[in-house]
Amino acid sequence: MAVKWLAVFAALATVVAVALAYGVGSRDRRVEDTLPETGAVERILVLGTSLTARTDWPLALEAELRSCNPLVSVTTRARSGANSTWGLDALREALAEGAAPDLVLAEFSINDASPFRGMPLRLSRNRHEAMIDAAGAPVVFLTMSPAWGREALERPGQAAYRNLYRRLAEDGRAGLVDTVPDWRALSVAERRAMVPDGLHPTAEATIGVAVPRIAAALRPVFCP
User: Fold this and answer.
1) Of 36, 79, 135, 196, whose CB has the highest number of CB atoms within 10 Å?
2) CATH number of the domain encompassing residue 132
């Protein structure tokens, strides 16, 4: 019996530890889109997860911005399953290769929030702050489509990781473009059609929902 209760307490301790590390139960806080002060901007580097790697939304963003600034170019480094540790390495590799951007867009909150491929909030903040310090250019973090259903269960603290981006923006360390309200405005039927697996929107959905928000936020910088 004692062994049984020890096992129960050990399981509870594990749950508590995960909750403390990953922000289980937290809620999104709305923060207006913000951009850091910057000079002339033409070259964008996008860093991200499968939410970027599996679609061509960066090219759609490039096309939107080229409508008023034909010199805009967007390059992408993204990988399915990537977290912010991979993102920091990818940024450093791009800089080492001479691909210095004028602006960095990054989205890693959805995988950092997963206990299976991510990391505790403290380490996530460390990695994102390191990106800001290494970039040599303004950094704008993106909150992309939330996870729903089973995928949300794998990311119980996803709101806490999105709120990390909001805190960095509030502190003036980085910019923020928040697409979550646009995804949450979808009806249940629309969401199921546009995000069929509960995590990855179709390419058409990302281009239709996220790109207009991102382009609208960036247009004052690229299209003065």
Assistant:
1) 135
2) 3.40.50.1110
Average confidence (pLDDT) over 2-20 = 37
Domain limits for position 96: 2-222
CB 118 within 8 A of CB 87: no
CA torsion through residues 7, 9, 14, 15, sign: positive
Res 12 pLDDT > 50: no
Structure token pair of residue 124: 């996530």
- For the chain, what is the mean pLDDT? 88
Buried b (16+ CB within 10 A) or exposed e, 179-209: bbeebeebeeeebeebbeebbbbeeebbbeb
CA distance 139 to 175: 6
The total number of structural domains in the chain stands at: 1
Residue 34, pLDDT > 90, answer no
Using alpha carbons only, give the angle 87, 131, 114 rounded to the nearest 5 degrees. Answer: 45
